[in-house]
Amino acid sequence: CFGFPLSVFFIVINEFCERFSYYGMKAVLILYFKYFLHWEDNFATAIYHTFVALCYLTPILGAIIADSWLGKFKTIVYLSIVYTIGQAVLSVGSVNDLTDHNRDGSPDNVALHIALSMIGLILIALGTGGIKPCVSAFGGDQFEDDQEKQRSTFFSLFYLSINAGSLLSTIVTPNLRATECGIHSKQRCYPLAFGVPAILMAVALVVFIIGSKMYKKVKPQGNIMLKVSKCVGFAIKNRFRHRSKEFPKREHWLDWASEKYDKQLIAQTKMVLKVLFLYIPLPMFWALFDQQGSRWTLQATAMNGDFGVLVQPDQMQIVNPVLIIVMVPVVDYLVYPLIKKCKINFTPLKKMTVGMFLASMAFVAAALVQVQIDKTYPVFPAAGQTQIRLINLGVAPATVQFQPQLQSVDVAPHEATGYMTFETSKLQSLDIIYESLNKTEPLELLKGQRYTLALKGNLSHINSNLALDNVTSKPEDGKSLVRFINNYPFPVNVTMDDMAFGVLSPLSVSNYSAIAKQKWSYIIRASMPVGTCTVLSKKFGFGSAYTISIDDCTNYKLNVTYFEDIAPNTVHMAWQIPQYFLLTCGEVMFSVTGLEFSYSQAPSNMKSVLQAGWLLTVCVGNIIVLIVAGASTLNKQWAEYVLFAALLLVVCIIFAIVASFYTYVDPNEIEAQFSEKKKEEYKKDQDDNEKEAEADSQM
């Protein structure tokens, strides 16, 4: 088909579906841990990075199984089945109604959901990692030796399918997660967000199997990684066995393997180990890079996602693949040629150093954004403290004195104060002065809580109500909280769209209800003896809390007053774009150049060893994050960002020093020398054999 083997189109479709499945699931994973399993940020981050580390460790296992035992085709099929089962188990584990027997909206057996989720993730890590090194290589196997041009085009299509799958899934699955679904109670729709990737993985498996009879299947020929490992192991063991001074030293410690392995394998292994030594500082880059899906996504949950259309926190990850598509050609065809024109020797290792520096600066930018976010957080009372806020619903000013003689506060009509903090044990009562009236309100307060005192005076007495707010943190997941207070002298039944707040007696306050759709206006309806009045609400924004006073009614239009209990998120998600830009520039210079450098310095039959080493650096980078997240005593998130930036900057300097001593080699030239030597040895052996045959004939 167009000069291509028909089988490769099945492989490209398979890769698109698999990448959609993986990136779609991964995009919403950190928020699933935080909001469904209710894990705190550090623990959720640690488990997220454990999973990612596992995904980059299992490719080594997959490559060994494919090359030494099953072959690429069977490895892809069997591990894809494992992968599909894992996605399905994860989706089932996220179904709230599975254990919500009392139908209160929360699972009754969280341990079962955690167990299913962890089993699912382990199977996914085994599947996605195991097939990672096999699929692209299997696609390459479909071409003949004279189809080099078609093979090159295939790899371009293959990587295009990877980017297309990840890009689409990062748009789609966060939107699926943001919808509400459920049998008995409506929740964020994680079953759908995980279920669609599971379906796509099943489609990927079916498509791959359909093309079975068309594939060219190369038999397993042994795994070069095992040979290299055995060579290195034998050299170390042999060197240790001959550690006495009576044995002469050898030029390189790997030369101790020469008793068992040929010189060409030893020379190739030396080249590989030389590059792998440079890999030692690289995990620190990945430690920062992979936090896009964890810390940066959590950061976005405390920001304003109104771009004209609503952008979910987990959708901000899409900035990276979009920028990659833009930046790779810009850097390759504009930036690098300009640097070359300036006669600067911008070697691959120098590019990687700059990439690490840019990633470090990305985390400085993330820290600056976090500082601004922290400024918007409300201050809640500490363990031995209580906060009180005053709302005057009357038509005259009021004065409230906190006894014994702690503070005196004036409140204007239809105004509210901010929250005032007191030591709970010292605050005994409130004296309310309204015009010529006076009232004492005795207090029995809970420590660490917020209260709202609503007051209103008339000609003869003062009405007041001290309500427990029962909110100890800013609303999460971008939701807003709303409650109502009745400013009528008779009971009022309050609803807002399909949310019922109940019948409120005068000055009584309803419980808070969560508003999931931040950009919507709702119909507020108040039913009272004189009739029913309605009004369209304001848009509540992200992460806010409001108390709405039902004041009066004019021509069936309800008059209300909004009191802001917790300010909405004011830092816009667009402020994350600079940090994504810096990190993506770093990725282009570090990751793309790093792979290119590795392959240019590796012998032709050792590419897979360096690929395994590269993936291992990603694995170790994620382990670094889970260690820091688990052991960090830093209370401020911006401080952790600065810590990671500083660590990468130090590693960047070390890498620059080590790289300056590296000597570039041409593996093809070295391999050619060995080939020439082998030819000479072969010719010599033939000459010797001819001489022996001639001598025998003369005898």
CATH topology of the largest domain: Growth Hormone, Chain: A
Taking pLDDT < 50 over at least 5 consecutive residues as the criterion, the unreliable ranges are none
Secondary-structure arrangement, i.e. CATH architecture of the largest domain: Up-down Bundle
Total helix count?
16
Number of domains: 5
Strand content: 15-25%
Query: Mind summarizing the main beta sheet?
Result: 5 strands, mixed
The chain-level mean pLDDT equals 87
User: What is the CATH class of the largest domain?
Assistant: Mainly Alpha
User: Nearest-angstrom radius of gyration?
Assistant: 33 Å
Structural class: alpha+beta
How much helix is in the residues?
Answer: 40-55%
Head-to-tail CA distance between termini: 65 Å
Shape, please? elongated
What would CATH call the homologous superfamily of the largest domain? MFS general substrate transporter like domains
Question: Can you count the beta strands?
Answer: 19
Subunit structure: Interacts (via extracellular domain region) with trypsin.
Subcellular location: Apical cell membrane; Membrane
Keywords: Cell membrane, Glycoprotein, Membrane, Peptide transport, Protein transport, Symport, Transmembrane, Transmembrane helix, Transport
Biased composition (Acidic residues): 687-699
Description:
The protein has 699 residues and is of the alpha+beta class. The protein has five domains: 222 residues, Up-down Bundle (Growth Hormone, Chain: A), CATH 1.20.1250.20; 38 residues, no CATH class; 208 residues, MFS general substrate transporter like domains (Growth Hormone, Chain: A, Up-down Bundle), CATH 1.20.1250; 92 residues, Immunoglobulin-like, CATH 2.60.40.2890; 96 residues, Immunoglobulin-like (Sandwich). The chain has 16 helices and 19 strands. Strands 3, 6, 7, 10 and 11 form a five-stranded mixed beta sheet that branches. This is Solute carrier family 15 member 1. It is found in: Apical cell membrane; Membrane. It is a multi-pass membrane protein. Keywords: Cell membrane, Glycoprotein, Membrane, Peptide transport, Protein transport, Symport, Transmembrane, Transmembrane helix, Transport.
